[in-house]
Design brief:
This protein is mainly alpha-helical. The protein has twelve helices and three strands. The longest helix has about 35 residues. It starts with a helix and ends with a helix.
Length: about 375
Amino acid sequence: LGSLGWMAVVCGCAMGLSELFLLTLLVLFTLPAEAMGPGEDVHCRDTLGNPSFFNKCRVENPPGVLAALGSTASQFVNPMLMAVGAVFLLVLLPLLVLDDRLPVQYGRQKQRFHMLRLQCIHFLHRMSYCQITNVALYCIFRQHRPCECGVDGVYVQIGSIYGMPSGDAMTGALVGATIIHHSPYNKIVSWVAATVVLVLKCIERLAQGYHSLGQVLAGSAMGIAFHLYSTHVPQWFMYVDTLVNITMGLLALKLDKHVKYDDNDAYNIMGWLWWGFGFQFYTIAMHLRHHYTTNNGKFDNMKESVTAMAERTQSRSSHARGSEILLSHEFEQPLEEKVNTTADAPFLLSATGAVFLLAWLSHLVQVYAW
């Protein structure tokens, strides 16, 4: 079959298993804090003292159109699903872009593949802000979520203990900013699509009582700021981010005595943190491998931002023939060997397997309240 053929087989099996895994995670992480019977009289109240306009509990009870729209958006745009989607896109990218039947076009295919892979890696890195940085900020701001709901005077807080800033709103902002930045459609359509994604995410968090208006606005602003920062600083800043994120996350959760978990706790934010660690380590491994294999073992290109590098690559591609894009040693390689070398399937599949082992560890953290 060749390495690309075996990659397709492995991807098919992995995606089938991952669907079951993701469905389990979606159930665990989207159930409310306490299931309420449809006939029970559920009351909700504010938890943030004397709530201002920005801190008020705005849960829609009973759920209406806004909650339904937001809930639908949440199934497609949330930190975990975006990160998993980016990983699978990186795995499938060689199959989608590289083609060993078009020798004349291979040089351009290779260049396009490398740039798309780098942009996916950076997008996955930005998702770590929603999973690691956001958890650390929870324990720094220590602002509780705005709503408690219950029956007969017994109230349970909706969501985990802290809610400032909203990680889901941050995700919506990062996804929206990515749509605008890369503009796959015309500018107007891109802005409309990005705005719809962000607004629906904010509505969902408000209508379901997970966050206050202030928390979703803070998360949205941070998401936009993180996108601008990540796409315009030198790429080696990614490693500084990783060190700071992991240190902040571990220290903040360790030092906060109010953070307590039970077995099978869907709101175990330490479990969320381990999810983020897995994706962050995967990002670092893939980023190092990308620069090592595309620049003859050198890392000079890390001095450029990913945006500047994309612009330079686009300019070079528009002025060069396909054969001029190949490295000197690649001219003598058979086409199939070139494709397999570019795809780097053994490393890619090994790194992907490792990240899902860390995801399994995060599941154990949640189940056993480690």
